[in-house]
Amino acid sequence: LMVMSFVLVAKGKYLGIKLLGVACSAVQSGLGEASMLGLAAKYDTRKALTAWSSGTGFAGVLGYAWKTVFYLQLGLSISTTILLGNIVAFLYCVSYFALLRPSEYRSQADSAASGDTARTTTTPAALEHSTNTDVGADANDMAAEDASLLPAEGRARDIDGTEAVPRDVDRMTVDMTFRQRLSFVLTLWPYMVPLFLVYFSEYAMQAGTWGVIGFPVTDKHARDRFYTYANWCYQGGVFVSRSSGTVFQAGLRLLWAMPVLQSGFLVFFTLDALYQFWWDWGLVVPCFVTGLLGGAVYVNAFTLINKNIRPKHMTEFALTAASLGDSFGIMLSDIAGILIQGCLYRHHGIPGAVYECTCCATLPDSNGSNATYTGAFPLNHTAMSYITNAFFDA
Fold first, then answer.
1. Residue 173: which of 324, 326, 315, 334 has the closest Cα?
2. Chain segment 223-258, per-residue pLDDT in tens
3. Which of 35, 48, 25 is CA-nearest to residue 385?
4. Which residues of 150-171 are buried (b: 16+ CB within 10 A; e: fewer)?
5. Among the listed residues 326, 305, 299, 304, the one whose alpha carbon sits nearest the alpha carbon of residue 238
């Protein structure tokens, strides 16, 4: 899918073909994210989640750097620049099949399935629970629904005090009914709502407001220049905060406070693009801060899931399911971004938006008169931004 996305965008002669390539990039990014988050549960989860988050944070920085070096500095065509990204697909295969060590989690599960229980002990509370529920003396043979009801003090644990890997761990999740899966996913709302809100806010900012900021705003090249540097600063903030998962763990209150602050930045940038009360290159500083907030919510949401979700064998499913939060946030932010950009374009008398805003039809433009415009939606901001952001994302 990654190779296909690069080829379709680089070589497609029609807009529909190029957009299909963008869709392929979105599909491979979503599948890769869900797979890698789930895979992290089979290793030292907090370190694996931080490494994944840091890598995806650096992807944005490297994506813009890739375009700058090959397209702007070396003078290669945009098609060649994109096609060179297929090198990354090759490196993914090498890192996964040749460099990634076998999962210790899987080794424990295989050992348990073969009858090796030397590292596992069962507490008296677990035995008492098993007796009272008439499911036998071995708590590891419980079905997923019963296992989720087992009190924390009654679960089997390794000799180091951590919760042991249950026998038939894969079967316990695969055999869950749709209703059980849905019920479990709904319990993840304390983590999914912050992910949704922070991603909705930051991507609506990028698609809707940053493309309507420039010095002066009526100059297309000035708007493009600010958009590029604003996103580069944003990606730098994302990389820094996503790399902090092993040194800082936010609690639920802070996890919820950060998206609220991010929503405030969306309001700020919308009003600033409208009235231009802060109108210089200093705006890249709050752009960097939005990256810090977005990256911090991402890594802390998933490390909190790893820390709080019980029973432990449900962590893999929980990490995968929670990624729906940011996916829905991005999807709705694209719609909101088009609406916001249309209104801001109309306000400043800038042609080129596909959505002709009517809510601010009576607002004067920057010259003091009401503006009208015609033209097609400029895909250079939205499409190119998505491609570069997803360029090295799994």
1. 315
2. 999 998 999 999 999 999 999 999 999 999 999 999
3. 25
4. beeebbbbeeeeeebbbbbbee
5. 299
